[in-house]
Amino acid sequence: MYNICLRMTGTVENAEDALQNAFVDVFTKMDTFRFESSVGAWIKRIVVNTCINLLKKRRMSFDELNEGLHNALVETAENTLDSELLNVEMIQKVIFQLPEGYRVVFSLYALEGYDHEEIGEILGIGETTSKSQYSRAKAKLRDILQSPRRIVRV
Q1: What is the pLDDT of residues 69-83, one digit of tens each?
Q2: Please, what are the domains in the chain?
Q3: What is the pTM of this model?
């Protein structure tokens, strides 16, 4: 859960705040759990919603990634890069260049495994908007990764 918070908020401090707030919500709302999904899935949804609310409130962006993001981008870039040029640090810098909406949708879909319908519900956008933002994020990532000036100082 901490890694989700860190990827979405971008800083250790914000991730810790979001995680703490999420678990306060979990414990105060435990009586509202309806057993329609696993407890883990319910907690994950609360964590993601808490991070999104924090992003909306502070208008923050995220750039912390894990190996899952590396794999997602390798799949996205498919044969468009020299493999030695693709590393986690570079990917972090590339992801940071995406607009916030693209980053959030990309993270929720590619890293967290939400489908576009769920992303739409979480973010208050339509399913087609989620799909188009994900598609645009992938296209922008490809463009950035193929550009000779792809590495931008963050």
Answers
A1: 555 555 555 444 444
A2: 2-58 (no CATH), 67-146 (1.10.10.10)
A3: 0.58
Sign of the dihedral defined by the CA atoms of residues 101, 122, 142, 82, in that order: positive
Question: What does DSSP assign to residue 111?
Answer: I
- The string of DSSP letters for 68-106 reads HHHHHHHHHHTTSS-GGG--HHHHHHHHHTS-HHHHHHH
d(CA 8, CA 107): 8
Name the CA radius of gyration of the chain, rounded: 16
pLDDT digits (tens, 9 = 90+) for 90-102: 776 777 788 878 8
pLDDT at 67 (0 to 100): 44
